[in-house]
Specification:
two-stranded antiparallel ribbon; 4 strands; alpha+beta; Helix Hairpins; two-stranded antiparallel sheet
Length: about 150
Amino acid sequence: MPITALSIQQLAEVRQDLEKEVDSFVQNALALQQAAGRYAAAGQAVEKLQQQEQGQQLLVPLTESLYVAGELESIESVTLEIGTGYYVEQNVDKAVDYCKRKINLVKNKSDEIGGILKQKQMMLDSVTQVLDQKLKMEEQQQQQKQASQL
């Protein structure tokens, strides 16, 4: 059904739904960008690990803002969190490769969402434009009724 055939109330509901979808896609895109940044930072940290010496003192991040003192046990392997509480031990090269693959995956998903977001935004713009036209037409009709009643 073409959007021009919808009533003002139906158009308003469609616009509201599209606004929610656009907001949701924007939030998802931001979350993916943040995830890509975290993977990039993790990959850089692992690469820098190769330049360190075994037994060196360092600060180990427990959260983004909480660090504890520690000692570098090995520069040959690292423990990676691969999701939902699962960890795997890998050598440094494989860990860097893992981070790069995750960055590419996240960027691909982000590009996918970006395309969908553009489509939804275009749909929202079209619905808004038709709704505005219908509201103006209704307003003009009411003004004509009032003028004819005088």
